[in-house]
Amino acid sequence: MDRLRLRLELEDLFAAYAACLDDGELERWPEFFTDDCRYEIIPRENFERRLPLAVLRCESKGMLIDRVAALRRSSVYAPRALRHLVSGVRIVGIEGGVVCAHANYAVLQTLSDEHTTIFNAGRYLDRVVRSDGVLKLAERLCVYDSVLVPGSLVYPI
Q1: Which of 117, 128, 144, 153 is the least crowded, having the fewest Cβ atoms under 10 Å away?
Q2: Do residues 120 and 150 lie in contact, with contact meaning Cβ atoms separated by under 8 Å?
Q3: CA pair distance 145, 1, nearest whole angstrom
Q4: Residue-wise pLDDT tens digits, 134-153
Q5: How confident is the model at residue 53 (pLDDT cuts 50, 70, 90)?
Q6: Is 150 part of a structural domain of the chain?
Q7: Strand 98-111 and strand 80-95: pairing?
Q8: Rounded to an integer, what distance in angstroms lies between the CA atom of residue 150 and that of residue 132?
Q9: What CATH number corresponds to the domain at position 42?
């Protein structure tokens, strides 16, 4: 496959993913993943030290769907607007139909009566596959830079 075309497809996937979350369309979020996916939000220090402790770990699309249901039904938090900025999309390897890709991210947060702040920043470490002609995330590790966890980390990154 042409790497430039693949990179553009990855950028489209990541932009659609960000727009889905920014627009609050959480029910669509699991559709970006394969059925047997892995999704983690993990601090950089734990990732680098190979410590398994993640703030959030889902090991299937069903777990992602459950996460969305829990957010919609039971979470209480102040209304906010989120804006995901994704940059530096890179293909770091292709093996057996699995594309390993990395990208930087920053999530901005705006509460209705406050200034915009950086909510979370880090990098995506992804394994992407083609399913029925569409790129899907088989694995997304959101490795965030700070050791501090935002108290309002309820939404996917």
Answers
A1: 117
A2: yes
A3: 33
A4: 999 999 999 999 877 766 56
A5: confident
A6: no
A7: antiparallel
A8: 37
A9: 3.10.450.50
